[in-house]
């Protein structure tokens, strides 16, 4: 039995006890029956009214609970729809009171969720509006009066983060462009003129609209200013080159140049004005110093002729160079010519520099070849001999490569220019071939000269006799070898001595003259030195002469001469 049922039974018992007690009181008092009936009816009505009132209140409570349940159900359905949540499922087998409490609690939770989402939406919308105002972009497409879903809120947050990043990027770009614009305007001595330029330079940078159009306009403005600045720099640079050229031609003192050095670096408007004024002043000085300026230009022209490998005919073609009538017209012709030469050199600079490089390498190669014939180089203990040989080998290897590269460049140049590439009036490749040919001829001549010199020495030795020269060998430290000399007894007859091998001398007179080409024998047995003839002999003629000499020498050695003839001494027994 429930406690409430036990309590109800106790209430009935209490009521019966109370009625019995009232009956006893009425009996003791002696209240008549009709009054007892009346009093009992009052008690019944009182109790009945109290119970009815309590029943009415409980029924009202039940009605309110049912109404609350119905209202909460409707609200719950609406919230689930707004929050895009699945419908709420109620628990079964529960009392009305539990059902009402459960539904009401769920409604409170969803209302709180709805309130939070709407607050987040409001904050995000306000932030998005600020970003849209700054970036001049469209707001996020989300109804501010509808409850957003969680996915929509996440997308909105990502949009805000992306917009914030874009704002920071554009702001940084704006600050950088603004700084460059201010610097350009300062270099150009220009103040903001249009309203846009004033907004960029003068207004607070936080208030500037960072729209795509404004950023594009900023870049356009910066490009225009940089273009004008570049034009100013180009004009200033042209003035500087002209001023420097006039300074050199007019021989302006260094002190005077240094006073003007500030304007030779910067390119602001004031510098441009100063450069223009200096140019006008120098042009007036040039007009007053026509002869000196013309001669200075001629020096530059001569240098360019050398750089461009102009032949004498090409130089002679510029007739004004040799005129002494120093007029404005003559100066103008010289200025036009030097501009033409400079342009010609710049257009073919790579080719000219390649030719200069070949000439320098060729000169160094010839110097090393010349050193190779110097006997004193073997006494050098500093390692220069090895370095020179290595350098010569590298040059001998690199020169053909350079010539091959130059040949390709010259072929392309000649095809483009439709004329031959000349160096000092001669085709460069032909000039290179002639240099190699001359080098080979020189090497052959040097070789022949050494052979002739050796032949002469052999002939002199055969005529007069000579000591046998044995190459000195290095000895080990601490070892001494006594010199051994073959001693041959000799008998000299006073007044009857004569040059040794006189008969052989007579037979070889003709060969001696042919081989040496340097002298003829005298009666005394010596030689008279003659002037060295031009090296116009051929290899075959020299070789033929030397072979004849060797044949005669072989015959002489096979005669029955005394075997003990040494060092121009003849023993007579």
From TrEMBL:
Gene3D superfamilies: 1.20.58.1520. Residues 479-508 are annotated as: Disordered. InterPro entries: MAP65_Ase1_PRC1 (IPR007145). Keywords: Coiled coil. It comes from the Eukaryota. Residues 222-285, 431-461 form a coiled coil. It holds the Pfam family MAP65_ASE1. The keyword Cell inner membrane does not apply. PANTHER family: PROTEIN REGULATOR OF CYTOKINESIS 1, PROTEIN REGULATOR OF CYTOKINESIS 1 PRC1-RELATED. This is Protein regulator of cytokinesis 1b isoform X2. The gene is prc1b.
């Amino acid at each position: 039995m429930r406690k409430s049922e036990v309590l109800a039974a106790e209430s009935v018992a209490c009521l019966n006890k109370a009625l019995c007690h009232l009956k006893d009181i009425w009996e003791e008092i002696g209240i008549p029956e009709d009054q007892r009936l009346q009093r009992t009816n009052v008690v019944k009505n009182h109790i009945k009214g109290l119970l009815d009132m309590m029943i009415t209140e409980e029924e009202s409570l039940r009605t309110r609970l049912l109404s609350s349940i119905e209202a909460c159900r409707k609200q719950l359905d609406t919230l689930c729809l707004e929050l895009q949540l699945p419908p709420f499922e109620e628990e079964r087998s529960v009392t009305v009171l539990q059902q009402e409490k459960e539904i009401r609690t769920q409604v409170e939770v969803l209302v709180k969720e709805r309130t939070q989402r709407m607050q987040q939406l409001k904050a995000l919308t306000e932030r998005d509006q600020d970003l849209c105002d700054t970036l001049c972009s469209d707001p996020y497409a989300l109804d501010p009066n509808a409850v957003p879903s969680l996915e929509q809120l996440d997308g909105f947050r990502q949009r805000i983060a992306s917009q914030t990043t874009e704002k920071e990027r554009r702001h940084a770009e704006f600050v950088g462009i603004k700084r460059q614009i201010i610097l350009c305007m300062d270099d150009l001595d220009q103040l903001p003129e249009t309203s846009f330029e004033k907004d960029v330079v003068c207004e607070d940078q936080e208030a500037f609209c960072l729209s795509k159009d404004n950023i594009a306009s900023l870049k356009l403005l910066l490009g225009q200013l940089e273009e004008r600045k570049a034009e100013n720099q180009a004009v200033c640079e042209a003035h500087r080159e002209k001023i420097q050229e006039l300074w050199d031609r007019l021989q302006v003192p260094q002190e005077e140049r240094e006073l003007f050095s500030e304007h030779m670096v910067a390119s602001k408007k004031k510098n441009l004005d100063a450069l223009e004024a200096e140019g006008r002043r120098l042009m007036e000085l040039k007009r007053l110093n026509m002869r000196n300026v013309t001669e200075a230009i001629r020096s530059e022209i001569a240098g360019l002729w050398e750089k461009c490998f102009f032949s004498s005919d090409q130089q002679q073609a510029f007739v004004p160079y040799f005129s002494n009538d120093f007029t404005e017209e003559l100066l103008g012709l010289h200025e036009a010519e030097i501009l033409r030469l400079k342009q010609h050199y710049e257009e073919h600079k790579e080719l000219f520099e390649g030719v200069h490089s070949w000439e320098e390498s060729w000169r160094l190669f010839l110097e090393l070849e010349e050193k190779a014939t110097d006997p004193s180089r073997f006494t050098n203990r500093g390692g220069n001999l090895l370095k020179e040989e290595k350098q010569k080998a590298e040059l001998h290897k690199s020169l053909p490569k350079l010539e091959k590269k130059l040949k390709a460049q010259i072929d392309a140049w000649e095809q483009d220019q439709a004329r031959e590439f000349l160096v000092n009036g001669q085709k460069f490749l032909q000039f290179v071939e002639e240099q190699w040919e001359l080098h080979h001829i020189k090497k052959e001549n040097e070789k022949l000269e050494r052979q002739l010199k050796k032949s002469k020495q052999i002939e002199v030795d055969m005529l007069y006799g000579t000591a046998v020269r044995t190459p000195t060998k290095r000895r080990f430290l601490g070892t001494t070898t006594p010199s051994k000399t073959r001693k041959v007894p000799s008998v000299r007859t006073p007044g009857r001595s004569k040059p040794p091998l006189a008969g052989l001398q007579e037979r070889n007179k003709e060969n001696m003259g042919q081989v040496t080409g340097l002298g003829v024998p005298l009666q005394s047995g010596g030689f008279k030195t003659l002037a060295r003839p031009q090296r116009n002999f051929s290899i075959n003629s020299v070789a033929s002469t030397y072979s004849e000499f060797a044949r005669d020498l072989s015959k002489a050695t096979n005669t029955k001469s005394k075997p003990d003839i040494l060092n121009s001494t003849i023993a007579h027994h």
